[in-house]
Every structure is written in C-alpha cells, then in structure tokens.
Amino acid sequence: MSIPLLDLKKQYLSIKEEIDQAVLQVLDSCKFIFGPEMKAFEDEIAAYCGTRHAVAVANGTDALVLALLACKIGPGDEVITSPFTFFASAESIANVGATPVFVDIDPLTLNMDANLIEQKITPRTKAIIPVHIFGQMANMEKIMELAEKYHLKVIEDAAQAIGARYQGKKAGSIGDAGTFSFFPTKNLGGYGDGGMVVTSDNQIAEKIRLLRFHGQKSKYYYQEVGYNSRLDEIQAAILRVKFKYLDQWNTARRNKAETYDQLLKPLTDKGLAVLPGRDPKAYGVYHLYVMRTDHREKMAMALGKQGIACGIYYPLPLHLQAAFTYLGYQTGDLPAAEEACTQALAIPCYPELTQEEQEKIAGVIYTVFEP
Ligand SMILES: *Cc1c(COP(=O)(O)O)cnc(C)c1O
Description:
The protein folds into 2 domains: 8-104 and 111-243, Type I PLP-dependent aspartate aminotransferase-like (Major domain) (Aspartate Aminotransferase, domain 2), CATH 3.40.640; 246-368, Aspartate Aminotransferase, domain 1, CATH 3.90.1150.10. A hairpin with a 2-residue loop joins strand 10 and strand 11. Helix 4 (60-70) crosses helix 5 (88-95) and helix 4 packs across helix 7. The protein has helices at residues 8-14, 16-29, 36-49, 60-70, 88-95, 140-150, 202-211, 233-243, 246-269, 296-305, 335-343, 355-368; strands at 53-57, 78-81, 99-102, 125-129, 153-157, 165-166, 169-170, 177-181, 195-199, 216-218, 221-222, 282-283, 289-292, 344-347. Helices cover 39% and strands 14% of the residues. The strands form 4 sheets. The protein has a 7-stranded mixed beta sheet, with helices on both faces. The protein has a 3-stranded antiparallel beta sheet with strand order 7-6-12, with no helix packed on it. Strands 10-11 form a two-stranded antiparallel ribbon. By secondary structure, it is of the alpha/beta class. The protein binds pyridoxal-5'-phosphate. Pyridoxal-5'-phosphate binds next to helix 4 and helix 5.
C-alpha cells in the first residue's frame, strides 16, 4: 500500500462524470476565453467569500501582483510579509518594484507573528501581505488594527486557505483584497493554472479587470499598459464542478487532521514532535498537515521505506533565498522561521485518505521514536 501526499487521481475518479461533461460542454461551445463559465465562477466565489467582487486571473502569483498594482504599490514602497511561505508571496512584491520586508513567524501557527510587525513599519511601508499558511489563518485582528493605525493596505495571500475563516469571516474577505490560487494541489485545484482576487473595493476590482486584459478599456482601445492574465473557460468549468465539493472536502481535511492530532498526541507529550497549532478564533482548512520534529530526516526515511510520501514545507526561508540576497538578511535574523525550516514535515492529509491509512502512517512514525 503506497500513500501519496495528495491523491488527485482518486479525487478525479470520484467526480469524473461531472468533470468530463463540463469540459466537453466548453469544447462544444468553442468559447474558450472570457466566457460564461469564468463569469459564473467569479460570482460564485464572491458570494462564497462575502465580497462585492471576485476577479479571475491566470494564477495565484498574478493575483498577488495585480492586487499589489491595484493598491498602487511600486518602487520605493515596502511590503511586510512572512518568510515562511511559498516564494510567490514575496516574489510578487519584488516584481512590482517594491521591497519585501520579512517578519518572523509565530512558532505555534507558523504564520507571521503579528506582535513583531509594528517594529518593522517605516514611513515607506505601504502594505502587509499576511499568508494563511497551510490553511491556518494569520492573526487578522491584530494585522487589521495595525493597518488602520498606519494606513496600510492588506492583501491576504489565501492561496492555501480558501474556505478558512477568522472570527466567522472568510479568508480573503478581511483585508483590502485577498488572493487565491487554483494550482492543482491547492484545496480548490484546477487541472492547470488559475487564480482569483476577491475584494469589496470597487476601484481595486475595476483596476484588476483592466490590468488582466492588457489595460483594454473597449475593444482595441488601451487605457494603460497591462497584462495578459486570464482564467480560461475549461479551467473555470472544472473549478465550478469542484467548488461544489469544497466545503465537504475541507471538513474532511479537518477530520483527518483531528485524527492525526489524537493518534500522534503521545509524541508531543514526550516532547518528540509538535503538531499544527490552532488559533481558537480561526477555522483552518489544513491545506497541509505539517508537524515539526528534530528527527525529520529519520521520519522521512522511515515513511519513504513504507511507500508513504511526505514533504518538506519549506526547506529554506525566503529571507535566505539566493534571489533575495540583495535584501541583506543574514542567518539568525528570523530564528523562528529558520528553525521551522529545519523541522517541518508534511504528512498525507487529504479528503480521500482513509482511517486505516492514517493509522498505518502514525504506526510508522512511532517506529522512528522507538528506543
Ligand atoms: C500556490 C501559492 C501561490 C502561488 O500560486 P500559483 O497559482 O502557483 O501562482 C502564492 N502563495 C502561496 C502561499 C501559495 O501556496
């Protein structure tokens, strides 16, 4: 029995008929770009998130870039974000000409530590990008307080957190804008690339609609220099089918996480591992179940031997990446993020995983710690 980190095939087979029909219907319509599927999907996501607008784009990275541009962030500006995230969270900041400023993480939730943000705010700070890492919400209460106090924009990178909530509000709907990725492995994943920005700000929405289509105001009349960043009809049709199952799948992920919490708790009692922390104000959607241990290599090896996949998220924090050498960070600057990168290991946690598989995985993990 081999267990992958995520079983996309099993999921596809469970909804194959609906997906195939949706794709065929787009092929039959021969409407491939900017059609009814994209429009309907935007309306569905806006309604789901409780935002006035949802604007579909080509991927989650573009969603961040276009949201930053719509918030008028550019050269000379600083944007605060987490060093413990996928590269795009900070790459987008650099790509609009602004400077990423990294704030260390809270070792409990692995999200940016909101209590460390204020000391990094300068007169050039224009925005904060909280990342809801692994589907767990950042401390949005404190972040919104700071944003108000210092007049900063907040763009939530909710690529891993669609459907998560904080004090009842959906991920992406709390800041000035929120971004999603529909990369195939995300909680709502297409069969290719896709992304979305949600916002209740009319100007931000209008600007992104303009930018995603070359800055075109009316056919062949261009208001400004824009981009080509669109969600195609085939992806939108697939995503609309999968979206119907999102809440059900997120609930299943939460149940799997709870099962692991119970199965693995004795390890935490002995100080051998740390399980994903929870903020009581938040409802997490477990994009990944990431545990922490000083025995990561041994654990990965033992799991691998039994055909069980696991993954290191993330091996190197962003402030120490070669691409950001020019920012001048040194090892030791953000110790909590650096430590997490030496300990974090994701084990399989997806809706289709069975109880039996989880017990097997826990069993293998226990063998690592046997004397
Ligand atoms: C996946 C991801 C992105 C980028 O999304 P793409 O669709 O791959 O461009 C951005 N931020 C985070 C936190 C992600 O996990």
